[in-house]
Design a protein that fits this description.
Strands 1, 2, 3, 4, 5, 6 and 7 form a 7-stranded mixed beta sheet that branches. The protein has a two-stranded antiparallel ribbon with strand order 8-9. It has 3 domains: about 110 residues, Butyryl-Coa Dehydrogenase, subunit A, domain 1; about 90 residues, Butyryl-CoA Dehydrogenase, subunit A, domain 2, CATH 2.40.110.10; about 150 residues, Butyryl-CoA Dehydrogenase, subunit A, domain 3 (Up-down Bundle). The chain has about 375 residues and is of the alpha+beta class. The protein has 11 helices and 9 strands. Helix 5 packs antiparallel against helix 6 and helix 9 packs antiparallel against helix 10. The radius of gyration is 20 Å and the shape is globular. About 50% of the residues lie in helices and about 15% in strands. A hairpin with a 2-residue loop joins strand 2 and strand 3.
Length: about 375
């Protein structure tokens, strides 16, 4: 299996790295973390102007057709810089609409994403140990439309999102529904997360909704597996950025007249980080390959779940070790590496932790195949 990026993906990586390195400074991060939305809207506009948001979309929808591979390259660079923009929820939602939405939905929603004027978010989690594809939120047909009722927890980046993709149970199985953020029967309760991002709990009471695809046809499963892989990509970048901070710190600091980087115990800690990150990267790109055509839902779900487990377990271990080798300065909440720790912690619990991922993987290995 060839994991080399190729010229197009390398161009996305290099351009994203240049923009993020230039824009995401400690001063800018502090400014955004005290804003109401916790989103760097100027950075979002810059990414759109550079064509990076459109790059992941199909060519017929105004994009460059780089798909999940392009998204993961972009998300890794975001994670390295802990850039406060809602890439993973907006772009996984957009890819799902592009793949399963109607022509009217695509033409209404996707142009705003490509130029940065609009975006989606996704509502996949609920309170309690609910699986994303076993939601307690219910969708009921109402004439030609649908009505959705339930509560969704920790919806990422609600600010600026005109629509939200909601997973809900139907008689035909889990479905995916598009709900306008300001529709009747929709209410939001904002909540700060571990990583300083602003999320919201979404309450739906007979809210009008339109299905993306047909309930039970696999659109909801597509969004969930795509979200698993997207989170793994962000976490890979977060862990890699944290390790870079640690390497720089240990080269510069001395103890007993020697650089800290020369101490064997410290070297072992960073070697463990490196091994975990390489495992995260290999399983991430294996999952990206499994999501490409020709597509097999069972293989894709297994690969996506493995990638998410490695990101959850390996990513959390890495940011913990990096925090440890920084000593007292690592717990300074304004020191750059602390943000990587907070992001790693937040991502490790999004859509379930490592234990939930192993339970899912066990069910996939022993249970019936999942519909594509």
């Amino acid at each position: 299996m060839d994991f080399s990026l190729g010229e197009e993906l390398e161009a996305v990586r290099d351009l994203a790295r240049e923009i993020l390195t230039d824009r995401v400074t400690s001063e800018r991060l502090r400014e955004v973390e005290t804003s109401a939305s916790r989103v760097d809207e100027q950075l979002w506009a810059d990414l759109a102007t550079a064509g990076l948001l459109a790059a992941v979309l199909p060519e017929q929808d105004g994009g460059a057709g780089l798909g999940m591979a392009g998204l993961c390259v972009l998300l890794e660079e975001q994670g390295r810089r802990v850039a406060p923009v809602p890439l993973w929820p907006a772009l996984t939602g957009a890819l799902t609409v592009a793949g399963h939405g109607s022509g009217a939905q695509r033409s209404r929603l996707l142009p705003g994403l490509t130029d940065g004027s609009g975006r989606l978010t996704v509502a996949l989690e609920e309170f309690g140990p609910a699986e994303p594809l076993a939601p307690r939120t219910l969708a009921v047909a109402d004439g030609p439309g649908w009505r959705v009722s339930g509560v969704k927890a920790v919806v990422p980046a609600p600010a600026g999102a005109g629509h939200v993709l909601v997973t809900a149970a139907t008689e035909s199985g889990p479905g995916l529904f598009l709900v306008a953020s300001g529709a009747s029967g929709v209410s939001w309760e904002y909540a700060e997360t571990t990583s300083h991002d602003m999320s919201a709990h979404l309450t739906l009471h007979d809210a009008p909704a339109e299905p993306v695809g047909t309930p039970g046809d696999g659109a909801a499963a597509h969004l969930v597996r795509t979200a698993f892989v997207a989170l793994a990509a962000v976490q890979t970048g977060v862990a890699d950025g944290a390790l870079a901070h640690a390497a720089g710190h240990l080269r510069e600091r001395e103890q007993f007249g020697r650089p800290l980087a020369t101490f064997q115990a410290v070297q072992h800690q960073l070697a463990d980080c490196y091994i975990d990150i390489e495992a995260m990267r290999v399983t991430l790109w294996q999952a990206v390959d499994a999501l490409a055509e020709p597509f097999d839902a069972g293989s894709a779900d297994r690969a996506a779940t493995v990638a998410k487990w490695w990101a959850t377990e390996g990513g959390l271990n890495t940011v913990h070790r990096v925090q440890h080798v920084h000593g007292g300065i690592g717990v300074d909440t304004d020191y750059p590496v602390h943000r990587h720790f907070l992001w790693g912690k937040q991502i490790s619990t999004t859509l379930g932790g490592a234990g939930a991922d192993l339970e899912r993987l066990g069910a996939l290995l022993t249970g019936p195949a999942v519909a594509s």
